[in-house]
Write a structure and sequence with these properties.
With 309 residues, this protein is mainly α. It is 59% helix and 7% strand. It is globular.
Length: 309
Amino acid sequence: MIVGPVRIPRFRNDNRAGPRWFFAVSMAWLALLSFFPCVGVAAETADGAAPTPRRAAVLPAGDADPKRMAWDRDYLKGYLRDTGKILGAPARWDGKDWLTASLVVAAAAGFYAYDRDIQEWFQDKRGDASNNVAKAISPLGKPLFAVPAMGLVYLYGESRENEKARRIGLLGMESTVLAGAFTSVLKFATHRSRPDTGEGYDKWRGPEFSTDNMSFPSLHTSTAFSLAKVIAAETDNPCVTAAAYSLASLVGLARLNDNEHWASDGFLGAAIGYFTAVAVLAYHKRPYPVSFTPSVSRLGGGVSLTYHY
């Protein structure tokens, strides 16, 4: 059923002080660098939300490396399996998880309250330099760019027998696809007008069969932050982590510069991408690189210790 536009009222701040908004917007987006890597711990460790803690595997001699990921039938089935786990996760949330979700929603509501002010500030400050940066950065948030790029990373890992590259490639692809699916469902369910239409931040058309007016949430930031989380977690390198989240934040800022999204679109898209990646990583934890193999012979019994590297 197609419904007419719905106008949602909000608080309007008529005191438009440019320097104050520059500080507020900059701090809000930079906060993603420190806030997002910290939240979601409860989601990774909540009862039922993730596999049991890692422990040394007991393997018969000759079995395959338990760490190895591969593009196979089990990996592809994992898309559906992990989607079901993510959708059912709220039933297993504890107090910390609900608090985290509440903080994310509250932050998104805060951005929504000032969407128009933020949009006007960005367009007022927009220039050739910001347009050039946005043109270079925006493609990093396109799924059609991200998924093939992660595929190439996986192929590199296969050719060089590099398990870290395999994991980044496969988990990056899955996180991007799942986050994109969740984001797209919300886009079709809400049909929010984009800033460049001039219709206003508060126009929501609701569910309809149309690819117009699909501002909420941002698919670019969803993609960028899902990849940033996977890369940061799998490399475990502070410099790489800072670079990944910085680029993801720049993707969000580029979409505001291009007048393609409202600030609340970008924030919620980033949250969806980040927490989807948190879940995917939790469902595919690396086992300890040590395995024990019991052995029995006529001379007695023993245990062999194997270190996988």
